[in-house]
Fold:
Amino acid sequence: MKKKLFKYLLSIFLLFIITVFFIGLNKSSIYDTKGLAGDKINDIKLNHFNGIKFITDADLKKNDFTLINFWASWCGPCRSEHTFLIQLQKEKNLKLLGVNFKDKKNKALEFLEELGNPYDLIAIDELGKQSVNFGIYGIPESIIINNNLVVLKKFIGPLNETDLKMIKKIVEKR
Structure:
């Protein structure tokens, strides 16, 4: 009787282990935040680059659209996307918020002096903790939001010509 009970419990245990294993195999292990579109961003409080004030929800609600771009001077792809940010600076319904990510302030200033400053506002996230609230896990990344702070689209990696056209199309709909 004890042998039958042991075999029965062992069989159930093995079946449980196999089930957990197969469920684990079917789940995606890729952390992907592209699905943020449609979500609302709340409680924005970023340190302004000048260190005197904060950038909050109220600052972003003033704009029809805001492109939040996470960048750093040490980031090679950030350098390559910068020309597209300069072009987006000309869009009437769009403001650019640059979030300087895990960077030295003097290096960031040199970067902007060399390539031009496309940003209407610049925040600094020295430790990278604020960026996590936006679903950022690498740079460059950009998020376009409307004046209700709803995420319209997230761009992972450097902006390119296709992204530029898409952003222009979004802001021209207004």
Remarks:
- The two ends are 76 Å apart (CA to CA).
- The chain has a mean pLDDT of 87.
